[in-house]
# Entry
Amino acid sequence: MTQPAPASPVFWRFNPEVFRLIGIRCKDCGHISYPRTKICHECGSLNLEEFKLAKKGTVHTYCVNWAPPPNFEPPITPVIVDLEGGGRYQGLMTETATPEDVKVGSKVEMVLRKLNTDRGLNVYGYKFRLVEED
Amino acid sequence: MPGERAVAYYDEDSVTMAVEAALDCLRDFDPKSVDGLFYASTTSPYKEKLCSATMALALSLRRDIRTVDITSALRSGTAALGFALDAISSGRSDSILVTASDVRLSPPSGMTEQALGDAAGALLLGKENVIAEVLDCYSVSDELAATWRGEADTFIRSWEDRMTMDESYSKVMPEAISGVMKKAGLNTKDLARVVFDPPGDVRRHGRVAGELGFDPAQLLDPGGVFMTVGLLGSAMSFVMLVAALEQAKPGDKILFAAYGNGADAYVLQVTDAIGKLSERRGYAKHLESKGMMRSYNDYLRWRDIVPLDQARRPERGHISLAANWRERHVDLGLWGIKCRRCGTPQYDYGGMTTTPIRVCAVCGAVDDFDDYNFARRKATVFSYTHDMLSPSLDPPTSVAMIEFEGGGRSLFDLTDRNPDQVQVGIEVEMTFRKVFFDRGLNNYFWKARPIRC
Amino acid sequence: MAGSIKDRVAIIGMGCTRFGELWDKGPTDLVVDAVEEACADAGVERKDIEALWGGSIFTAHGGRFFTEALRMQYIPASHLVNACASGQDAMRNAAYALAAGIYDIVLAVGVEKIKDEGMSGLPGMDNRTHTHAVATMPGVFAMMATKYFHRYGLNPEEGKTMLAKISVKSHANGSLNPKAHLRNVLTVERVLNAPIIAWPLGLFDCCGVSDGGAAAIMTRADKAKEFRKDPVYLKALQICGTPSSGRITSEYDYTHVEESYRAAVAAYEEAGITDPRGEIGMAEVHDCFSITEAVTMEDLQFCERGRVKDDIEAGTFELTGDLPVQPDGGLKCFGHPVGASGIRMVYELYLQLQGRADKRQIKNPKLGLAHNLGHEPYAPLCSVCIVGL
# Structure
């Protein structure tokens, strides 16, 4: 079937993840999974509790994409970030002057941005920007 | 405004109507004998894509023919006629099909909208067994456009009638008509019938005719056409000529002219062959079998002048030009197969995929077939439904499983139908329609239509 | 004929979610909930499952969908996309793997999360070139009703009344089922006066659109009793494919479904059944539309061609009748999350055979038959599954 529209229940169900960064922490092994899951990624346990991700972290890896999907201005820099306190988050970089500014280990923080517009509705989510050095 | 006007159905446009007229025109003629197809219209669905190329497939014409679209003027039809005559008299072609069709729009509820009508006409020109000979022609070019549409315009624009009629129609028509009569050495009394299209103000036609010295009895009354069908744009002249030919006798001289940024005029002489031409629906039969619309609101939706509330239904996929091109003969030409082993005709547009048929559905023979065309075949309704769930611009969506005469069965949409009159066993025929629109492209295909005349 | 699956594999645990408009459940939730219930029922853990087959036509994409949802650790996984027969096809493939002696414990699961699409009904007919007649599913089945009425001399009122009784019966059963999507009771009059969806089918002649998941844990017959004292054995599981000739040849009469008939014939032979009407004790058939159930009764040889009306009038297929059909409410009331339906049907037969069907319990049920019809009546893919103790 076609991509779910922003009005679809799929988006509605993911509101806690998207806006409040709610994932889960396994009470048995401590592993943090995001988005929420019913079964721990690490140990398979069903014994889970809600966990709110931090908004700051370091870049685990990234790439610079010069041929992005439609509606994206090249280059785009997707990053996978290890967040403070646990959990990993995949998102796009924003507010980088040049792609070379991003490195493995760069300190980044989340900012809420408009990701896309689809069928008249805006889709919001977090992107990362480099933390300004003092 | 009193009178009635013709409205194209939501699945019709200038291309589908041109095909319809052409099919009627080509009755009992071999499409393979046609050397060219000239499509004339001011309302082509494309600024950049050839409609005549699509039509050539729908009509199963040859590939090595001249296809050309002639647009932009209300006299595109007679202009195309001129080129066709030139092609034949030069010896380059033996037979050319010319169509003229229009679906013109004007702001809702206005006088102009009421006056317009949607129609198509088709003429087949050739050398042998002609039903009317073209004796002479004369053209006048004129810059002044009484009506026009720009690049981005949906609706017709016009200047004050009085000025444009005085300076254009009333000057140009007499010039062209008297021009051709002089060339042919004829005076007004020699003409059995005078056929020329009116401008927006039909009374002008009478004035011009009177000033030229014609008797009202000689005129093919445009008022009649206007009151029952409307002002038909570039199709008007063709439709009037067909109406005239339906009443013509051998030996009649007909004056035929059309207006639009100038005028083209022709003198025709009807021959004995007119009596031998097989019956066509033409003007009279189509008019007789007309169906009336339910309401003006339907018209606004069909022409996409008002938006439709979105149905809670899945989006359809995009058009695949590759798939469409691969299946062009099956889909546009309605070509199926007849199995050489068991003799069963079969048509398949593909259930969830695409055709062509490689394995006979009856005997299992592989690739052992003859081409078999279904476009002109009559059929009967085997079963049908009126589907309220499927969105339609004229609900309900009527669908029928039909059985072709001679064999073959398939599932088609029904169009031009009154739901109450659809029954198992009624006769239907195939008609070329627009079935989908996506990112600027029209998807054309065939539907089944209960036979009306 | 090829070999037989009869009494070679058994179902030792089943699970089924509630079916309905489950806005707050994602696809993962449905899979996990159904499988966890099945594991608990079988007394096994997820990690004991050696291979899985998942049926889903809209929701899943590949075996990975299921292993990801369940966090299955590196087991083989296949995804079946076979229209409404996907669930039973998942069971079929699982069964053959067991019968071949490759695995001991396997999972067949079905899921569909259709209500995320925000629309009424399922996608209509369409093909790559957009030339397919734009009927919807109700439309193409409605044409079978039109032809059936025409052939057997039923005027529209007689025909619609016959169909209405089918829906009324299913709703009576669905009202007894806590997991069903629709649990309201209907009357014939209400059904007849309902708005028309595709003539002659009205609102209550058509099953709705539902989310849901169902699962079966299966093992070889020789191991079944290690898990429970009352495993349910497969007596037959047949699928009949289609040459799709019915849409384009004159041979199809549009008043029966050849593929349902042939799937049943093959299943009866596989199970050693010679008197279907006498030996089958209960049935869950593909009542996507009331006309489908009517015609299926004839295709399964429960009654003669053109004569199902007599049995409907006589109450044969009621819960308390000779041959209860749709004891759990059927697709009509329980719901039709396409990939899960085939397994949900077996779930009901399974519960009935084990005496766990609560208010819907049929007395001393014998063999149970589950039937699916995928795609359209003129070119369907059908499955028939027969189970018993």
User: Anything to note?
Assistant: The longest helix of chain B spans residues 161-184. The domain at 14-299 of chain B is CATH 3.40.47.10 (Peroxisomal Thiolase; Chain A, domain 1).
